[in-house]
Design a protein that fits this description.
single chain, alpha+beta, 27 strands, 25 helices, 8-stranded mixed beta barrel
């Protein structure tokens, strides 16, 4: 056998260390490897070793490089002469069960584990190739530790371990059980010993009916399975199985260690449910909805089927929250969720999408004609919540898959677009998505962008509608109303841009601008008129809840010179009912400075006498809907009469909106209504015409 190492490993002729010329980083890796590394050529010659190989075999490196692989193995493991050394792909890792041993320089055998693999090196064209890298691991410490552990097990049977420990023989018969096993299984150790471990395992999760085959399949790994208690209940456990071996390496039996994972599985299920379900309604949330819808679309495409996505939005739900409080709103949502759950088939999914929106996924569109009317019947049925009798209605948008799309998010967006079309068409109906609907959505987005630009470029203005004292016929004030004349869109009515401002939050800036401009105009008009006027300004819930809003009102009054007693802020009933905000404190802070508070559109919400008595309110404005239906010739108008009597009893004044006929004014004056406004007196006018409307020159 030649003494000269192969140049392919970096060593030149006569080099004592073939790694001498190997790159430093590679040498460091080779030497730092905790296993003994030996490279052998096809003839069995040792071509490269590391420091651990010297320690394991007991030979210096120079000696090892003159030896063959057979010299490092006991005689029983050596290859016959002439047989080539190569890595066998089917035996890349040869474990200790094969009885492998290394032969040390002193003749002692060391139990080892070997992993072999072929090496392919550049320049291996001399035919001597078939290089094999053997990673050899000394198992002496491992075997000694296992032997000690087995000895300790035989002495104590792991009585102190809180887990279930079952020891079996090689055939799977239980030979010992610790107290943890007795507690977990509800059986005494004496009743377990001698039984097959298959009697402990849940048959539904067993890999094999034969005990030895089952344990052999599970040896060396940990898995979740089930143990059967004495009462027949199945306990979920995490079980790890280890082999027990004799000194000579022969299999003696198995050790099965298991612990109850019921609590863990329950916690996992709870966490999973929290991430996939809405806590208030217990319906699937948006995350689970999108997953389910994606799967339903894929199945529909594969099966040539048509499915449905319905997005439901409760009509005027904001009024419930604003008037009765969010605690009542939450109960309404829970009741709607329960009705949807009862209505839906098991194959369908009902999810809460957010707020007062729900989504239903129906996997077969053919059932829609039969279920649509029933759905509306369920949702519009009156309900009693927290002592309040409520009637709900819904606007529903529908999209078909895969016709209207195959992406879950896109389908939900299309259904949402159709839902807004249902609201625009009068609410409480179902509209199916059409591609032309996206044009309307884009227009709404464009309107929001144009409104933002209008605020910057001063395209907005304020008009003023006179408020007349009914007894005297004198104009005593004005209500300020925002107007928009766009350079590109023309006249944009408040019914179009106010909802957009509310939705986008621009109402806060818009409201502040209207307040500033109106205070300036009224201060100037009353100076020319020669007598004080009152100014009514509408305040949205967003403005009312914005931080610093009270300071904004007071600083505007100070800056414009209008007296606080001349400003009347008009709020909706909903602001009073929202108990999340410090409504009373805010209203009192304004009243303490002299600002008056009026309830606008009174009679349309859910206000009660109890609510009105809690708040510092100065005036109620009867909604135009009641005035419009006023027919004096047919007798009394009980709602108007009741409002007037109630307001006066509480020390409040009453204003009627939308007065268009003299007969209406006469009836209101006779019933004691204090003020009125409407087209009978004047439409909203520009600031330069307000002086004349107030009786000035």
């Amino acid at each position: 056998m030649p003494d000269v190492p192969d140049d392919r490993f970096g060593g030149g002729a006569g080099s004592a260390d073939p790694t001498a010329d190997t790159p430093a980083q590679l040498r460091a890796v080779i030497e730092a490897t905790p296993d003994a590394l030996v490279v052998i050529d096809g003839d069995g010659r040792v071509r490269l070793v590391n420091r651990e190989a010297e320690r394991l075999f007991g030979h210096p490196r120079a000696r090892l490089l003159t030896m063959s692989a057979n010299d490092l193995l006991p005689e029983r493991l050596r290859l016959p002469a002439g047989r080539r050394w190569r890595a066998n792909p089917t035996r890349r890792r040869l474990g200790e069960a094969d009885g492998l041993a290394a032969l040390r320089s002193d003749g002692a055998e060391v139990p080892i584990e070997i992993a072999v693999s072929e090496l392919e090196l550049d320049g291996d064209a001399d035919g001597g190739g078939e290089l094999v890298l053997a990673a050899v691991r000394d198992l002496t410490s491992r075997i000694a530790a296992r032997t000690r552990a087995e000895s300790e097990l035989r002495r104590s049977m792991l009585d102190s371990i809180p887990f279930s420990v079952l020891a079996t023989d090689r055939d799977g018969l239980i030979v010992a059980a610790n107290p943890g096993a007795e507690a977990l299984l509800g059986r005494a150790a004496a009743t377990l010993v001698g039984r097959s471990i298959t009697e402990v395992h849940d048959p539904a999760g067993a890999d094999a009916a034969d005990a030895s085959a089952l344990l052999a399949a599970r040896a060396g790994c940990e898995r979740e399975t089930g143990y059967v208690r004495a009462d027949g209940a199945v306990v979920p456990v995490s079980e790890g199985v280890s082999e027990l071996r004799n000194q000579d390496g022969s299999l003696r039996g198995y050790l099965a260690v298991a612990h109850d994972i019921t609590a863990r599985l329950q916690a996992q299920a709870a966490v999973h449910r929290m991430t996939t379900h809405d806590p208030m309604t217990n319906l699937p949330n948006r995350t689970l909805l999108e997953q389910y819808l994606a799967q339903s679309v894929a199945e529909a495409v594969a099966n040539g089927r048509t499915g449905v996505v319905l997005l439901l939005d409760l009509d005027h739900f904001k009024n419930v929250n604003d008037s009765l409080g969010h605690h009542v709103g939450d109960l309404v949502l829970a009741e709607v969720a329960e009705r949807l759950r009862r209505w839906a088939d098991d194959e369908d999914l009902v999810a809460r999408f957010g707020g007062d929106e729900f989504v239903i996924v129906i996997n077969d569109a053919r059932v829609m004609p039969s279920v649509e009317s029933n759905l509306f019947d369920q949702l519009t049925m009156a309900m009693t919540v927290h002592g309040h009798d409520l009637a709900t209605s819904v606007s529903i948008g529908g999209a078909l898959f895969p016709r209207h799309g195959t992406d879950a998010a896109e389908l939900i967006q299309h259904a949402d677009t159709a839902m807004y079309a249902a609201k625009s068409a009068g609410r409480n109906q179902l509209q199916w998505f059409e591609h032309g609907m996206r044009v309307q959505t884009n227009e709404r987005m464009s309107l929001a962008s144009a409104l933002r630009q209008a605020l910057r470029e001063e395209e907005l203005s304020v008009a003023y509608q006179p408020q007349v004292e009914l007894d005297t016929g004198v104009t005593i004030g004005f209500e300020a109303l925002a107007r928009w004349e766009s350079r590109t869109l023309g006249t944009v009515g408040p019914e179009r841009f106010i909802p957009v401002a509310e939705d986008t939050g621009m109402i806060v800036d818009l409201g502040a601008w209207v307040l500033e401009r109106a205070c300036e105009d009224i201060a100037r008009i009353q100076a020319e008129l020669g007598r004080p006027l009152r100014l009514g300004v509408n305040v949205s819930p967003r403005q009312f809840r914005s931080r610093g809003w009270v300071d904004t009102v007071l600083s505007t009054l100070e800056r414009t010179g209008l007296q606080p007693s001349q400003l009347e802020l008009e709020i909706t009933e909903g602001v009073l009912m929202d108990e999340r905000w410090q409504v009373i404190d805010t209203l009192r802070a304004l009243r303490d400075r002299g600002v008056s508070i009026a309830i606008d559109d009174f009679g349309l919400g859910y206000s009660s006498l109890a609510y009105l008595t809690r708040f510092p309110i100065d005036k109620l404005k009867i909604d135009r809907a009641f005035v419009r239906e006023l027919e004096p010739d047919e007798g009394r108008a009980p709602i108007i009469d009741a409002i007037v009597v109630m307001a006066h009893a509480l020390g409040m004044r009453v204003v009627a909106e939308g007065v268009e006929k003299p007969e209406q004014a006469t009836y209101l004056r006779n019933r004691g209504c204090d003020e009125a406004q409407g087209f009978l007196y004047s439409a909203a006018v520009e600031p330069q015409h307000a002086l004349r409307a107030a009786g000035g020159a």
